[in-house]
Amino acid sequence: MEKYVRIKKIGEGSFGKALLVRSKENGKQMVVKEINMSRMQRKEREESRKEVAVLAQLAHPNVVAYKESFEEVGNLYIVMDYCDGGDLYGRINAQRGILFPEDQILDWFVQTCLAIKHIHDRKILHRDVKSQNIFLTKHGIIKLGDFGISKVLNSTVELARTCIGTPYYLSPEICENKPYNNKSDVWSLGCVLYELCTLKHAFEAGNMKNLVLKIIRGSYPPVPPRYTYELRSLIATLFKRSPRDRPSINSVLRKSILQSRIKKFLSESVSVSNDSNLSSLTILYP
Question: Any idea which positions bind ATP (predicted)?
């Protein structure tokens, strides 16, 4: 850590803490995740290192960039880019009940989908898609971060069971103790899109039992009619209760409501041909 000056602690989770630091080399602000490995079993430590290696492979304009990782005094440190525009959760709260224009919602949503596509195409699951993990640069570019890839570092299910934070984004299959899959990320994406349209969580309840019941039933208050039928229909599709009926991320990106916007971000976000029907996108998940 001698290369960095600590500025402040910006987060704490089951894995350890997140620190805002400044690089002594270039003065840039970065985020360092400090993960306490001393309490982990040997197998868990190996798993953590493997998953950091996976993070290091991701390079996409809409994914928070990994810089380096190292171990010191029983801690694993992961250095990532700092997003200076806050996160979508903060933006939603700042609206104070004034709904976002549909154009703005779709611009943010398309970029988030392109980030999810990048990881799903590499057979990686995010496991913790939520508005607090979707960051913005000061130029308004979306950056997906805070992967819960690791069951060791940050498990959504474990967080849900221990009730650390309210698990608004849990999919029906997770509530029923079924395995996490790529369609679980798609459900969470639906929760984020709903939140952008209503400024509220789709599934809310006074306790965990009632929340789980609502999620399993798939019952949520309607999206305001000021938004187009296509947008409201897209949310309904993402909230299909059975993972089999939910679209893959590539299918989501083929929706006509998103097609025109993809071109806006395509050149800088994903290297495929300019084919307007995205036929060149490899579908790894049917």
Answer: 33
Contact 285, 251 (CB under 8 A): no
Q: Read off the pTM.
A: 0.86
CATH code, 99: 1.10.510.10
Residue 26 within any structural domain of the chain: yes
Distance CA 92, CA 202 (A): 14
Residue 25 domain-assigned (yes or no): yes
User: Is 31 part of a structural domain of the chain?
Assistant: yes
* Nearest-angstrom CA–CA distance, 259 and 278: 9
Instruction: Identify whether 87 is a catalytic site residue.
Output: no
First to last CA, the chain: 44
Please name every residue paired with 69 in a beta bridge, in sequence order, or none if there are none.
78
pLDDT value for 55: 84
Do residues 207 and 256 both lie within one domain? yes
Same domain flag for 74 and 129:
no
Structural domain containing residue 238? 88-269
Contact at 8 Å (CB) between 151 and 98? no
The 10s digit of each residue's pLDDT in 148-189 is 655 444 444 444 444 445 589 999 998 998 888 999 999 999
From CA 180, how far away is CA 127, in angstroms rounded?
A: 8
Annotated binding residues for ATP = 33
128, 146, 245, 275: the catalytic one is 128
185 and 44 within one domain: no
